[in-house]
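I am writing to request your help with a piece of structural work I have in hand. Thank you for your consideration; the sequence and its tokens are set out here:
=====
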Amino acid sequence: MRIGFPLLFIFLLLILIGSETQAQEKIVPFVKENKWGYIDEHGKIVIKPQFIFANDFSEEGIAAVVDDIGWAYIDTRGNVIIRPFIFDNGPDYFQEGLARFTVENRFGFFDKAGEIVIEPQFDFTLPFHEGLSAVCMECKEKRSGEHSLIEGGKWGYINTKGEIVIELKFEHARNFENGIAHVKLDGEWIYIDKSGAVVSSSAQSKLSSEAKSSVLVQFDLRYMETTYSIAADTCEIRWIVHNSDVNKGIVRHRSKCNLPLKDQVPLLSKILARILEDCDNISTINTLFIGRLIHFSNGLSEMSRRLAIAAKQSSLWDTGEGKPISGHENDFVVKLANKEIIYSELKDLFQRFNLTIEVVSVEKVLITNADKLPFFEWLKKQGIRDTHKLPYDCLLWFSISKK
């Protein structure tokens, strides 16, 4: 029997569609006897259990796994196709579609399909930002306590093709923001545009002021933490994101700031936005730690005042004895802080990003007579006597979660 061309064409097309559907059949990770592998939708083993850990496959058909050597990306047959640069205790984040990898301590970039886009050739690179990556040659890693710094060498910029578009002549270089980058040349920090031209002196002054409200990101090359810092006038704030096995997901607040907390919120908002931009999901951060409230260089004394007045107004606090009617002062402060929302500015801040925070633990609660407090004059106006013993300070731990 002869098959006409139209029927033959349809027959072949159905075969191709069936093959493509089979090829695109989803496979998912599973674990057996503490080893990870992959199965298809019918439970059939596609890649035998052999990994220490395995992530889902991406739309491009690669998955990040951990084997006996470390992190790697594999294809749907289980073959290792590339080993990424390790950042934040995991594979480097994709920025503008590219992530870093190293071969013999030289940095290059690959895309989301695992294809090498820029061959490893640089001694260090920053992730791509606004189409450019700051790269250096002859620079070295130097340990400084728990951190690593990149020192020496010459820095310049490459495009996404790996072409040097701004000569490697700077002592240091940062990412481009709104078409401008901060670089160090002949011992002086200056600004350049994307052509490599130095921005005019009049614009330098304006940019210097604006730069104080830009988020600076610095990371530990041992991949244990990333520091996000911002400054404006008399205020400097740092949020340190921890990613060690012990402290993974903890954000530590540090500041030297004379601004009221409400005026710090715009700066904190920029930091939080940048953290969430850099992180693929909220699970990267789950805890916020704030140190002493009474430290007057951090602008958090308002929370200290709120804590004291809330305790005075609570029927569960004994102002004569300086302790809760029952239970431990730590438990009392946790419940009081959440009930009275002494951290309202922070709560509102996180809500803007569809997140919620609440106090889950406190440490080292400090209690003293009201007249010993630096804001006693304010407390007196609230009807508090000098002999009232009140909590006024502690170390605060917040949980962070999606709303």
